[in-house]
Specification:
CATH architecture of the largest domain: Alpha-Beta Complex
CATH class of the largest domain: Alpha Beta
Oligomer: single chain
Radius of gyration: 22 Å
CATH topology of the largest domain: Spore Coat Polysaccharide Biosynthesis Protein SpsA, Chain A
Strand content: 5-15%
Strand order of the largest sheet: 3-2-1-4-7-6-8-5
Order of helices and strands: HEHEHEHEEHEHHEHHEHHHH
Length: 403
């Protein structure tokens, strides 16, 4: 048993060193890499689509940040009230009135969601369709989540990045809320794991197949949207942002994905249960519902996060340097790689030593995701459960939810 643990610990140590050296600098947490606008440059028309379901407590602040954008070009906003039960639409209309923005912003009510469509993607499709019906012909669409607040120069910088480097899709992983103990343990780890899975440098490299986006803030050219067949292309995708990025990159469009601090989610995930539900909703989807990928993922997570701790502790207790050394190397390497993400989120550096705990919890969430899917509740979110179905079936009548 000791020999097996020692070998596993060395494999884990070599894996961590290899990831740090060769996996697209996924640990690099420099943020706000968007281009600055060029003075007096011609700027394209942009139309923002905001899918909103039960966001009354935050939408005044987030919609207000869109209406306050310092953008010299023509910019309009459509907020789609996705059958909310908390007065989201009323708050949004009052916000538009407060900015005297009736000529450039409006609220539309989403129709019942058809079978085979996920809620957010349907809301995006409704927003795009409503904008087109009103005569909008923007060069770019800005998909912004209803819980995301932006600095006033965000849109100008997104457009400058898209035009300067000929990117069809520009996306930012917005700064997530990170104040409670649960958030400080799990949110930076979530960002770290996402960037390990999708190294941003590889996403931004046109010669690599890696494609990803962060759905909270996506600028997409209308040409690219039409080229992939519209929002309908990703109708049934739970992980809609990465599916959209894959479709765009697969059609020949360039991607840019970066970290943000000047765009931030103001939605708090104050408890472990809330974060658990968010992750378990799509974890098995990420694995394409494959038992083989699930087994490999669980084995890999145990190897990378549990084995180093077990080897370090067992080696110290047995006074076996040959056991403690590889465990300590792996543990130290992961902490070193994780430290820049903690610095980005202003979490004390010592918390890097707790990454194995976060890894173990995310492994448990993934296993729970399998259980939820087996029960038919894997895609439950905001009071709805998504069940794949033919795209052109009859609409599903849903009462407004207060969940």
């Amino acid at each position: 048993m000791v020999k097996v643990l020692r070998v596993a610990a060395w494999v884990g140590a070599v894996t961590w060193v290899g990831l740090i050296v060769a996996r697209g600098r996924f640990w690099d947490s420099r943020a706000d890499g968007l281009c600055d606008p060029v003075p007096d440059a011609t700027v394209p028309d942009v139309h923002a689509i905001v899918p909103a379901r039960n966001e009354a407590d935050v939408v005044a602040r987030t919609l207000g940040s869109l209406l306050a954008q310092d953008y010299p070009g023509r910019f309009s906003v459509t907020l789609v009230d996705d059958r909310s039960g908390d007065g989201t639409g009323d708050v949004a209309r009052a916000t538009i009135a407060g900015f005297a923005a009736h000529e450039r912003a409006r609220v539309v009510e989403a129709q019942p969601r058809p079978n085979g469509w996920t809620g957010k993607v349907w809301a995006l499709a409704e927003g795009v369709a409503a904008a087109r019906a009103s005569g909008a012909r923007p060069a770019y669409w800005w998909f912004s989540d209803a819980d995301v607040e932006h600095d006033p120069d965000t849109l100008a910088r997104l457009v400058a990045t898209a035009t300067a480097s000929d990117r069809a899709l520009v996306s930012q992983m917005v700064a997530l809320h990170c104040e409670s103990a649960a958030e400080q343990l799990l949110i930076p780890a979530f960002v770290f794991f996402f960037r390990m899975l999708y190294p941003f440098a590889w996403v931004n490299d046109d010669t690599r197949a890696t494609a990803a986006a962060a759905g909270g803030c996506v600028l997409l050219s209308d040409d690219a949207l039409q080229r992939i067949g519209g929002v309908e292309r990703i109708a049934g995708e739970l992980i809609d942002d990465c599916a959209l990025a894959a479709a765009v990159k697969g059609s020949g469009g360039g991607l840019w994905l970066g970290l943000a601090t000047r765009s931030r989610s103001i939605r708090a995930y104050a408890s472990l249960a809330t974060i658990w539900s968010m992750v378990a909703r799509t974890a098995y989807t990420q694995l394409r519902y494959s038992p083989v990928l699930l087994a490999g993922t669980v084995a890999g997570m145990l190897l990378m996060y549990v084995v180093p701790i077990a080897a370090t502790v067992a080696g110290a207790r047995r006074r076996r340097v040959d056991l403690a050394l590889p465990g300590a190397v792996a543990w130290g390497a992961m902490a070193l790689a994780y430290a820049p993400t903690l610095r980005l989120y202003r979490v004390r550096p010592l918390a890097a030593l707790a990454l194995p705990l976060a890894g173990a919890l995310y492994t448990a969430m993934t296993i729970d995701s399998v259980r939820r899917h087996a029960r038919g509740a894997g895609g439950t979110w905001k009071g709805r459960t998504f069940t794949p179905a033919p795209r052109h079936s009859e609409p599903v009548e849903e009462p407004p939810s207060s969940a």
